TrEMBL record:
Keywords: Methyltransferase, Mitochondrion, Transferase. Belongs to the NDUFAF7 family. It catalyses: L-arginyl-[protein] + 2 S-adenosyl-L-methionine = N(omega),N(omega)'-dimethyl-L-arginyl-[protein] + 2 S-adenosyl-L-homocysteine + 2 H(+). It comes from the Eukaryota. Its EC number is 2.1.1.320. One of its GO terms (molecular function) is protein-arginine omega-N symmetric methyltransferase activity. GO terms for cellular component: mitochondrion. It is found in: Mitochondrion. GO terms for biological process: methylation; mitochondrial respiratory chain complex I assembly. Signal peptide: none annotated. Arginine methyltransferase involved in the assembly or stability of mitochondrial NADH:ubiquinone oxidoreductase complex (complex I). This is Protein arginine methyltransferase NDUFAF7. Residues 194-219 are annotated as: Disordered.
Amino acid sequence: MVNAVGEAAIRGYIVPLASYMRMCLTGDLGGYYTGAIGQDRDQFGVKGDFVTSPEISQIFGELVGVWFIAEWISQGQPKEGVQLIEVGPGRGTLMDDMLRTIKRFPAMVDSIESVFMVEASPELREKQKTLLCGSDAPSEDCAAGFRSTGKHLGKPVVWAESLKSIPIEPNKVPFIVAHEFFDALPIHCFQSAPAPASTPRTASTSTSTVKPSSTETNSSPAYEWREMMVSPTHPAEVASDQAKAKAAGREASAAEFQLILSSKPTRHSRYLPESSPRYRHLKQSPGSVVEICPDASLYAADFAARIGGSDKVKKSQPCGAALILDYGTSDTIPINSLRGIRHHKLVSPFSAPGLVDLSADVDFTAIAEAATLASDGVEVHGPVPQADFLELMGIRERAEMLVRAAGTDESTAERIRKSWRRLVDRGPSGMGKVYKALAILPENDGRRRPVGFGGDVSPR
């Protein structure tokens, strides 16, 4: 059955992959995070569709909290204006563990002005409020959205639907965390294909200032980027598969939608793959595929502007930091990475739209590129494997402390051991290898590396 999200896609008939993902995940008609999940059903955890690192072990959030404490110390222990900002905070587990850890450092607590939770889902905002402030904590409207008082630090906790709702101010010290946020942002997918003879061999358009490369102007034959689009699967194909599956006693495999290659360039294919040399040099290789996430670059640029300033926001002194933890490629362009997850199993991303979690590999190099182009006041460290980051942060030592605290409770001790080892598993698909950490810091000419990335706490 096609739900409201699917019906909307059908009305558009053929839509870019990014549009399909946006409708499925955060669409007003029943997106995965904004209403399609049944009441009282949780996307996260054993009973949901997937488990995240903070849900696996409290140590994860504790170490992220320690990382920001170390940055606060290394940046001279600013006494005021500190903002803690989390984008895509899920159930709020990560921030809860971070705040519980930061509470042990009263001087940093005094410096914190507000905690910001950037969350699009009304249901998740309520869960976060209950966890961070208490179920009976009063709330009030504010410029960004609404706010309440946190139970850990006694500081305002503000909920905003968009990062744009939080002003970029030159006198603030933003500490930003994005865990499994970038992987859920919509991607565009493009493939190189032969260009018709009548198509001009240039990468520029009436609205683009990108100059064609010598390869594009002199090579023969010419190639152009075509966009992968989402189209409904023909009803006859779906019905036939369902009949065959029923006769064989198996589950039908035909999805309600499918990816097809556009028959001609689109407005996205004319610009996005020409926006970086990383993509442009692949165009003359027929069949080359690239996945591009414009939203990821916009968020990275926003983080960088908050930390290092920009042409619009002048900061006398860059300050703050952003920590991004997600799964993706270290130095290559993601391809064919779109996946659907339901009930902890991989499923077609084109089945049950709005009821399946969609995600794609993060292009960390593109994030780093966007951040450094947006602000001269920042530098990027990483990405490094999650296993390396957590081990340098002391995950093994913290786990041993918790095991000792468990005493004779061997079942709890074993759970602690299994949890932290899962987070640093370096196997082919282990979380310690697949997940990466990347940091955006104030520019310091490479004189200081942050904790977890080969550096140590170095107070000013």
